Amino acid sequence: MRALFFFFLATISAIAAQKHYDGYQVFEVNAKDKVSLEVLTKLQNERSDVYDFWTEPRNANRPIDIMVPPAFIKNFVDLMQAFDIDYKVKIADVERIIEANRKERESVVRKKLRSRSGAPRYSLNWESYSDLPVIEEFLTELAALYPNLMTTSVVGQSYEGNNMNLVKISTGGSGKKAIFIDGGFHAREWISPSFVTWVIRELVENYAAHPQYVDNIDWYIMPVVNPDGYRYTFAANGDRLWRKNRRPNDGSACIGTDMNRNFDFHWDEGGSSDLPCAETYNGGAAFSEIESRIIRDTILGIANQTMVYLTVHSYGQYWLTPWGYTADLPANYDQLYDLAVRAVDKLTAVYGTQYTIGSSTNVLYVNTGPSDDWAMGGAGIPYAYTLELRDTGKYGFELPAEQIIPNNLETWEAIKVVAEDVMAM
Questions:
Q1: Tens digit of each residue's pLDDT (9 = 90 or more) over 93-102
Q2: How many Å apart are CA 345 and CA 342, to the nearest integer?
Q3: 332 and 240, same structural domain?
Q4: 34 lies in which domain range?
């Protein structure tokens, strides 16, 4: 309840002082040929200070979402028309969606504070999105209630001194296979920690419903691996749509590195940017960021028992395999694909939500230095996936809170399939 109170105060403050996006629009564009794709790539590389590419311009005939400030909308439309690039407005006013979701979060917190039925079981719930302190308090509360199943530890501090939290869920014993899950790589992808914390609760609080998943598997979970960026999206002086971490870049006024371009496996071989202001800035060197190094060291400490690495992102509804650096497929792609298909089938069976399955390069775009490529190619984990959760762009990063639980329910069904396969490996 203490965390809820401070979250309420922070929410009220943020409404007044956070960066605002009045009049910003998100356009869906479609590069029909190589020339128009090159135009969009050049726009992203050279005007990242103006245009925020919510999805990457890597393949022709694949929709690309771009947020455009109001002062540049006419210029952007003129450019699209000049190069015969199909476009449409996908989100007419970004701030309107952000503001509606802020009010919804505020309303949920107020209801909790006024509740006459006593304090909720945990500081965190899945009716609204939660800042890092609330998530940390939830981890403490759950571990205290179930000490025989769950332990928490701090495996390091971020650049700004926030904790890098690791949860281990296990019934003990040795020689067990493991699954590693992380969330919150990109700060604005709030649905990611919301799902990862749901997995923790489901495994621990609902252990009796499926004891085999914990009796036979050790789970290692990091709910927020970019804590500085994540907190900044909630902060009173922050930016709801911030993506990167928060370390200043030497020789540049621009802050932050895209941590999912910072891992040392085919790093900087295309699919990232060398420009510090770019949203996909790779950091200037592999593992330049303290957060990436902490993730690396944590995974390497358990890599010999880990069978599956899952990194949770949004948005787009994709279940992605390596590789990101090449269109070539991993040697075990058939097995990767088969498991993904069966997992997504269970996910889709819940609400009909459709996911696209395939390697990152072949179904999306080239991206070098991502954590899933490194987990498989660097740490030697046999199965690695990136999950891009809801939606397909109607709301983008501002997925309404009312979709958190449906998203979590359907995606949990997929995680169960993964767990069952690990037990059989």
A1: 999 999 988 8
A2: 5
A3: yes
A4: 25-92
